[in-house]
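pasting for ref
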Amino acid sequence: MDGVFTAPQAVEPELFGRDVSSEEIRAWREETLGQAGSGPDARIVLFVGRLVRDKGVDVLLRAWRRLGRADDAVLCLIGDGPLAERAREAGSDIVLAGRMERERLPVAYAAASMVVVPSIATRRFLEPWGLVCNEAMHQGTPVVASAAVGAVAGALVVHGATGLVVRAGDDRELALAIAQLLDDEPLRERLSHLAKTGVERFNYDAAADAFGKALASAGAARA
């Protein structure tokens, strides 16, 4: 469309796409998952964000209870907020890791089997993008996102291609998607590869170029 320029949302690939060693992953698992009731090799389903209703935390907790995967998987929540206590009381297979420095997040993403972004739309909130999707995908970590997440509308997370998409607020559908990724290793591997390649075009150079074209279209001289 003439006069419309898309500046993709981006994060630092040199940080979030860096090589993470097996030693870093092992140390993080021991530090973070020591409180979990699951075994040391349990797969990690990761949530990163504020522990509030708008971010779909209630939906995620209901989906997790539907799954009943305490024997082989752990739900790890990175972040804090008013729903932290509710999550803490939801079971020993749910780990609250608290806040984490951005520099350490790549290790958590690399350790996880998937990242879940279950945001819902409310009268006060609509997830504008969800940069957690970009961050995870730079590590090749598949994303399960709700249709209310901006990264879905913006074609970063594409169902069956670079991730899985579920209806916002539907804990049953979310549980099925999580179970599918936990149980289907070829699917995880395919989504991992496509996620890592798909996020590459969402970069700062492309965003700057789009802003430059928009300014030029509006009559501003480019430096």
